[in-house]
C-alpha cells in the first residue's frame, strides 16, 4: 500500500514517555506521572505536522494498550499512522526520566526483550511512500540492531538521495556495544543522505574528532552530506552547506525539560527546508522551536506552531 506523497516521513523509535509531574525528585520518590507519545523520529513527525506538513512515521508498536495509545496519539496530532506496523510478541516500549533543570535529565529506557521499532524488516517497508516523500528522516538508533539496520539501509538505498534525506546522528551509548560499532554503520549510511544533524559528540562519533565544530561540519560534508548541522547547546548551532557556514546563537529559555528540544529542532528544520528558506533563517527558526519545547514538560504535546516560534523569535529580537 503506497500512502501517497508525504511532506515528511520519519523512521524509527516510538513509545510512551512516562514523565514525572514533580521536578527535582528522584524517580523512586515520584508520586505522579504524565503519559505522552515519545520516540525521537516520532516527535519529529509530530513537530512537522504542527506546521501543517503531511507527516507519517515508519515504525512498529506492540499489540497492547500502549500500542493503541500510540496510534490514537499520532492521529490526534495529525500524523498518518498507516506506516505503523505491529510486532505481536513484543511490548510497546516505555521511557521514564528524571527532571533536574537546567541540564540533567536522566533517561531510563524499557525496551526489552527488544523494541518493536527495531523489529522492522526490509520487506515490510512501503518503498513507494519512502521514495516519494519530500523529506525522509532516519536515525542512528535504527542501525543498532537487526532487522532494523537492514531495513534502514534498504530504505535509503531505495530512495537513493531523492529529495531531502536526513540522518539524525542520535548516538545513544546504551543501544550500542561500542562507539566504534556505531561509527562503522553511520559511515555506511552517510553517502545516502543529503543532511546530517547532531550535537558535536554525535557528529564526532560519525566522522571522528576534527578539532572544531566547523571542521566537523566539513568532515560530514566530505562524507556525503550537502548540509551539515552541528548543535552546540548553549553555544548555539553551526551549519555548513555549499554556500558556506552560518553560526547562530542559542535562544534564551528557562529550561523545564530539555529532552524534546532536539526533536522540535528537527521538525522545524524540516519545515524550513521544505519552505526553501536560507540556511541562516532555518537555523534561527529551529533554535527557537527547540527553546520553546525546552521550556515545557512534555515533548510531542509541546511542539510549537509556526506562529509560536515566530513570536519567540520576535521576543528575542526585541530584548
Task: Compose a concise summary of this entry.
The chain is an alpha/beta fold and 319 residues long.
Q: How does this structure look, described?
A:
- The protein is α/β, with parallel strands linked by helices.
- The chain has one domain: UDP-N-acetylmuramoyl-L-alanine:D-glutamate ligase (3-Layer(aba) Sandwich), CATH 3.40.1190.
- 35% of the residues lie in helices and 21% in strands.
- The strands form two sheets. Strands 1, 4, 5, 6, 9, 10, 11, 12, 13 and 14 form a ten-stranded mixed beta sheet that branches.
Task: Walk me through the topology.
Elements: E1 8-11, E2 15-20, E3 33-38, H1 40-50, E4 55-62, H2 65-76, E5 79-80, E6 84-87, E7 94-97, E8 107-110, H3 127-132, E9 135-139, H4 148-159, E10 164-168, H5 179-189, E11 195-199, H6 200-207, H7 213-222, E12 227-231, E13 237-241, E14 244-248, H8 261-275, H9 279-294, H10 306-317
Parallel strand pairs: 1-4, 1-9, 2-7, 4-5, 4-6, 9-10, 10-11, 11-12
Antiparallel strand pairs: 2-3, 7-8, 12-13, 13-14
Helix pairs in contact: 1-8, 6-7, 8-9, 9-10
What general outline do the C-alpha atoms trace?
globular
What percent of the residues sit in helical stretches (DSSP H or I)?
A: 25-40%
Supply the CATH superfamily name. Ribokinase
**Taking all residues together, what is the mean pLDDT?**
96
Rg calc: 18 Å
Sheet with the most strands? Answer: 10 strands, mixed
Instruction: Report how far apart the termini are.
Output: 51 Å
Detail the poorly predicted runs.
none
Could you tell me the number of beta strands? 14
Total count of helical runs of at least 4 residues: 10
How much of the sequence lies in strands comes to 15-25%
Q: CATH class, anyone?
A: Alpha Beta
User: What's the domain count?
Assistant: 1
User: Which architecture does the CATH hierarchy give at level 2?
Assistant: 3-Layer(aba) Sandwich
* CATH topological fold name: UDP-N-acetylmuramoyl-L-alanine:D-glutamate ligase
In N-to-C order, the SSE pattern is: EEEHEHEEEEHEHEHEHHEEEHHH
Quickly give the structural class: alpha/beta
